[in-house]
Amino acid sequence: MGARLINNPRQTNRGHINAFPALHISALRKSGGFKQGQRLPCHFQHADLSRAIPIIVDLRFEHDFKITVGHGNSITDMQVIRLTHRHSGFNGRRWYFVSEKGERAETLFLVDGRFQTRREARLTYPSQSMGKLDRLVDKKQKLEARLNGTGGRGPARGRRRKQAEKGLEEIEHALNFIGSGIVRREQDRRAHARERRRRSSQRLEAASAAMTQRIDTPAEWVITTFRGVVDGLKAGTISSAPSPIAPKTNPDAQVDIGILQRMDLVQPGKMLGGQLGWPEAWIPEPKRRLFFIIDLRDRKRPCAVFVVCDPKRQAHQLFALKRVKGLFGRQGYHFICPNTGRQSITVSYSNGQFFCSS
Fold it and tell me: Which of 18, 71, 110, 120 is the most exposed place for a label (fewest CB within 10 A)?
């Protein structure tokens, strides 16, 4: 499978082989049940099982070698597993279990009350779930055990000890390198988060300053004056001005629904709004006034209405809003373009008309 670069747990099909009782062909042979031409009983015992499982090894017929496993007291609980072998050195035999699909295996695992091969049971080896860091730690522990000795074997000597010491030194160097890399990544992540917050704060301050630069109408007047217009647009008794297709280059004048939400102008169950007091470069007409209303009174029909007021005319544009899942589990909103149906977080303004930004 090869080493995995990441160190998160791998999603296995059913689990690791160490999590299930295993029946090894070598252990079965050591129990004395393998005798040519005979049918002999033996038992399979495991610490995770409350009782021993009876097994009968039948080697009486050359073309019908098998074992019979008694999982219960009835005949229907019996499992028959075929056996096969191949010749080995010194006129010996190497035995294998044979699965229902004809797969040979020297180990079977007790899964769902039946002995199965690893592939049949969809099990994986623990090493397949190790990342690069886990592999280094595991190898380090093995080298340390080789140097210090274990209960069954003393410490390594001579050439093997030098090899183990050299390998341990290389692993410790690699672990230090990985540790320093993790520290650097964490520092970079925090620096990136601080920079992201700083830029977000700058965007909020710039948008708020641009919106309030030339305000001469209170927000209460906007809501009181245009409440009927919003209700008429939603009911269809007042027609909405057509929204043009977005131009190739968007102007600087934009209404960001996320910025409005951070300014507490987008609140569920309420109708809020105000004047867009943008600078003269964005609204060159001296007597033109722009207003916006965010209506979230009806959960099923949220909308935004933009009003362009000139001395001799007044135009209204309606944009539907769609609730979306924002960052950190928060609720956000997107404008829906009346022409294309596409969603956008901003609505741009140009020449007395609003349109969804591309």
Answer: 18
